[in-house]
């Protein structure tokens, strides 16, 4: 049962990462692309970390996976903010696409 739940989390995480990647390619402007990447990839990584946690189950591994997820969350938040700020400073129009 645990393996099945881990598989569901893993496949869900892969789906969200794939959806964020497709959103980054297909969405029209930089702000929408940032939103797609930061939201979908963070959720996807969380689900993959939960899957790995279920498969291993040790407390040390759980803390390391949580640390990995938190650092990725922090990095994506800061980088998205910097990209949006740079786009705003360059006065990129939301309809320009970049």
Write a brief structural summary:
The protein is mostly helical and 98 residues long. The chain is built from 3 helices and no strands. The protein has one domain.
Descriptive report:
- The chain has 98 residues and is an all-alpha fold.
- Helices cover 85% and strands 0% of the residues.
- The chain contains three helices and no strands.
- Helix 1 packs antiparallel against helix 2 (30-56) and helix 2 packs antiparallel against helix 3.
- The longest helix is centred in the last third of the chain and has 31 residues, at 59-89.
- The protein is elongated and about 50 Å long.
- The chain starts with a helix and ends in a 9-residue tail after the last helix.
- The model has no long low-confidence stretch (mean pLDDT 89).
Write a concise keyword list for the protein shown above.
mainly alpha, 98 residues, single chain
């Amino acid at each position: 049962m645990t393996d099945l739940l881990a598989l569901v989390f893993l496949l869900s995480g892969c789906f969200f990462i794939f959806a964020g990647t497709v959103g980054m390619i297909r969405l029209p402007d930089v702000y929408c692309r940032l939103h797609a990447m930061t939201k979908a990839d963070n959720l996807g990584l969380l689900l993959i970390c939960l899957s790995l946690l279920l498969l291993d189950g040790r407390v040390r591994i759980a803390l390391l996976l949580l640390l990995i997820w938190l650092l990725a969350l922090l990095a994506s938040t800061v980088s998205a903010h910097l990209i949006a700020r740079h786009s705003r400073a360059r006065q990129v129009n939301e309809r320009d696409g970049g």
